[in-house]
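#lab-general

N.A. 3:47 PM
ok so I finally got the sequence cleaned up, no stray characters, all 249 residues accounted for. can someone with queue access submit it? mine expired

B.Y. 3:52 PM
send it over

N.A. 3:53 PM
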Amino acid sequence: MDPVNQFGVAHLWSQADFISQAVGLLLLAMSVASWYLILLKGLRILRVRRRGDAIEAFWNAPSYSAGLAALAQQAPASPCEELARQATAAADHCRHHAHRQTLGGGLDSCEFLTRSLRKSIALSTAQLESGLTVLASIGSTAPFVGLFGTVWGIYHALLAISATGMATLDKVAGPVGEALVMTAAGLFVAIPAVLAYNALTRVNRVELAELDAFAHDLHAFFTTGARLAPGGTAPADAPAFGLSQPGAA
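B.Y. 4:20 PM
back already:
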């Protein structure tokens, strides 16, 4: 047998028992799941960056319906579009049911709008954070799965050595080195998952902060008719920042 192939991964796999092979397949499945989530989230982040000016296009639109159309065109099915539509639906609901003597009609319109915005942000947060638990679990458990495979491989190798009665260096180095491949495999799976989890957490935090700021501006617009200026105050000379009232064309 070729000395290189004698101590390779293929030789390890052929000599491994059921438990070692199960550990290897588990690490492979964890790696596939991790990279699938990384690529899926990475593509979403690229799409979000390409439509980063959608909110400003919304506020610069000549009317509210035109602003919604700009969001639908530049950021379709995005959290900011869903937030704007939820705010519109909440404002229309309060306008049509404000004077009804019912439990829903007696709710303060400002409070109802706030709850609608919070619900939309909560749903967007859950969508953004989907898959992060899997990445965190893979990043924290993969090294220990690989370590278990190493320990089991060394134990299996020592049993084989004790059965043959040959414990020279050339007989020990091969099986032990092959078993240590499991540790390297565990690290190979865990490191990308941990790095991706940290990066995605930061990106989500920034995106949710922007979404929260957009919700604050929407709340101010629907309750006072004016979006807050960047400094935190609404200028009197531009009460709607180029937007007509909701429902206007």
